[in-house]
């Protein structure tokens, strides 16, 4: 929908591969990333790029190769960080997504119960009620921004519920999520400077340190993330290690926010682009769970994860050195025609629909995947009860970002039954 | 042909004739036994085909490091927890009774 040509972007098919920046966020902003990644899968599936704003890095673009790298956690470490850019060492917060075993397992196990499906059943009625209220409040017959009134609104509410966060300032959670992922080096210079990001990180730490001390030992029967950390002996003193506490908070704020938000928006776009699929799911709502998985594949809300080579190694005939960055392009894996037939088609009940790369693989596979699926399922169940149409009236605005794939604006009109 | 009895969390039983050479996960999928998701399709990289082996006629293959890594993250892990994609049905293992967990994640 948003295919305008940018003279600054090199032609992905005619330019020599070594002259192309695979990480250029503008290809995601303009939604013209697919041809370059298809070319990489065919010509150079384990591809070295000597220069980029993030320094040299390898790109892995085939589905099966990404699975292999993610399984080999000894050679391909998640430390010190999991996005393409490196934070400076003194500002390196510690989060379990960027830890190896055994520390990763200990911290992940402490917070995992909050997103276990058993716990989610308790939340579902509340989520459904809040979703229904948000959808009932949407204007009819006039254009509004789906990103703001639905996707952002609902994911913020969910996150506030999971943290038992003060309801009146819950918007801060989404603001923080946007801020901490908006590093200028991932966004073609559009994001925040590191100093400004640091200020926001300090604010997050201050608010959550206060919440921690208010809650410690209060014996309230609650499954919010802060109390879960306090109750687990391995993480009961996490507040005393601020870089670890802030790291895990940021992980959960971003992980539980941007990703689901952008998939909520993406679904509207795909149903507009593939109207026959829209008609099918309207006629048969039992297709919603399967459609949710296909939305997540088609959106792939995080374009990549990054690993770091721990010792000199050879992978698919390419020699990698200790310290090399290896970027696993999930967005490419999810369009890999050798694993997913007709990958450019949005097919809501394709066979093996759950077998996509958007959640990653192995021990770091998305912890909140069942929560995300439940939120998206509830949104579509409630939306399709109310609306005979959700029509995009202007092309959406995409993020200029090489890590978070999503939308800042999506003007739509809805028609109620 | 070995017989596998699957017992869902709510107690519903499914007894099926399993083809040797298929994994337990593939058998469950083939016969539409609910309770196994198998998101990754059999690579031991998602952990959503977790099951409990209550009984087996013969000995089971050992848990390899990849399976161990994934099982280690299951909040409901027990001593008899396995990933059902990692055990191939065979005449030497023979009949099995398998309980399915309350949820996969």
**Percentage of helical residues of chain A?**
40-55%
Number of strands of chain A: 12
Give the N-to-C terminal Cα separation of chain A: 27 Å
Q: Give the tally of structural domains of chain A.
A: 1
Q: What is the CATH first-level class name of chain B?
A: Alpha Beta
CATH architecture of chain A: Orthogonal Bundle
Residue share in β-strands of chain B = 15-25%
* Low-pLDDT regions of chain A: 1-6
Q: Roughly what is the average pLDDT of chain B, rounded to an integer?
A: 96
Short description:
With about 425 residues, chain A is an alpha+beta fold. Chain A has helices at about 25-30, 35-45, 65-70, 105-110, 115-135, 145-165, 170-180, 195-215, 225-230, 240-255, 260-275, 275-285, 290-300, 330-335, 370-385, and strands at about 45-50, 55-60, 75, 145, 305-310, 315, 320, 325-330, 385-390, 395-400, 405-410, 410-415. Helix content of chain A is about 45%, strand content about 10%.
Plain-language structure description:
The complex is a heterodimer of chains A (417) and B (105). Chain A contains 15 helices and 12 strands. With 417 residues, chain A is an alpha+beta fold. In chain A, a hairpin with an 8-residue loop joins β10 and β11 (407-409). The radius of gyration of chain A is 21 Å and the shape is globular. Residues 1-6 of chain A have low confidence and may be disordered. Chain B is α+β, with helices and mostly antiparallel strands and 105 residues long. The model of chain B has no long low-confidence stretch (mean pLDDT 96). The radius of gyration of chain B is 12 Å and the shape is globular. Chain B has one domain: Beta-grasp domain (Ubiquitin-like (UB roll)). The chains are: A alpha+beta (417), B alpha+beta (105). Chains A and B meet through α3 and α4 of A and α2 of B.
């Amino acid at each position: 929908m948003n295919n305008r040509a940018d003279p600054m972007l090199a032609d992905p098919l005619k330019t020599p591969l070594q002259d192309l920046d695979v990480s250029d966020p503008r290809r995601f902003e303009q939604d013209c990333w697919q041809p370059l990644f298809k070319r990489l899968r065919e010509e150079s599936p384990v591809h070295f790029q000597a220069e980029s704003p993030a320094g040299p890095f390898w790109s892995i673009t085939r589905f099966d190769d990404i699975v292999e790298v993610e399984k080999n956690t000894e050679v391909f470490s998640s430390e010190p960080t999991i996005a393409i850019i490196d934070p400076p060492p003194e500002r390196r917060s510690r989060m379990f997504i960027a830890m190896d075993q055994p520390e990763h397992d200990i911290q992940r196990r402490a917070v995992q119960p909050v997103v276990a499906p058993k716990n989610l059943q308790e939340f579902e009625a509340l989520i459904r009620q809040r979703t229904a209220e948000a959808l009932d409040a949407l204007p009819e017959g006039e254009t509004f921004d789906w990103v703001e009134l639905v996707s952002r609104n609902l994911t913020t509410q969910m996150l506030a519920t999971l943290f038992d966060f003060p309801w009146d300032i819950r918007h801060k959670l989404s603001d923080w999520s946007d801020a901490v992922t908006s590093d200028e080096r991932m966004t073609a210079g559009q994001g925040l400077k590191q100093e400004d990001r640091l200020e926001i990180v300090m604010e997050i730490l201050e608010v959550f340190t206060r919440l921690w001390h208010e809650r410690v030992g209060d014996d309230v029967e609650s499954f919010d993330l802060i109390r879960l950390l306090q109750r687990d002996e391995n993480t009961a003193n996490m507040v005393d290690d601020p870089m670890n506490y802030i790291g895990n908070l940021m992980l959960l704020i971003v992980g539980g926010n941007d990703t689901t938000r952008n998939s909520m928006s993406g679904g509207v776009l795909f149903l507009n682009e593939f109207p026959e699929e829209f008609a099918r799911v309207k006629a048969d709502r039992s297709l919603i769970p399967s459609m949710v998985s296909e939305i997540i594949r088609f959106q792939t809300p995080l374009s990549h994860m990054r690993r770091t080579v721990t010792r000199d190694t050879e992978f698919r005939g390419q020699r990698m050195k200790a310290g090399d960055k290896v970027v696993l392009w999930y967005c490419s894996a999810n369009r890999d025609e050798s694993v997913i037939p007709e990958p450019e088609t949005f097919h809501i009940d394709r066979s093996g629909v759950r077998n996509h790369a958007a959640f990653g693989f192995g021990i770091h596979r998305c912890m909140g995947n069942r929560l995300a699926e439940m939120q998206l399922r509830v949104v579509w169940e409630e939306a399709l009860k109310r609306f005979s149409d959700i029509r995009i009236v202007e092309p959406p605005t995409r993020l200029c970002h090489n890590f978070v794939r999503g939308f800042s604006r999506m003007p739509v009109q809805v028609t109620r039954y | 042909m070995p017989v596998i009895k699957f017992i869902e969390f709510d107690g519903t039983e499914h007894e099926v004739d399993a083809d040797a050479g298929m994994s337990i996960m593939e058998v469950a999928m083939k016969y539409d036994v609910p309770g196994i998701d198998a998101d990754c399709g059999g690579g031991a990289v998602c952990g959503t085909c977790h099951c409990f082996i209550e009984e087996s006629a013969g000995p089971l293959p050992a848990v390899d490091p990849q399976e161990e890594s994934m099982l280690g993250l299951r909040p409901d892990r027990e001593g008899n927890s396995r990933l059902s994609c990692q055990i191939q049905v065979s005449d030497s293992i023979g009949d099995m009774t398998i309980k399915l967990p309350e949820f996969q994640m």
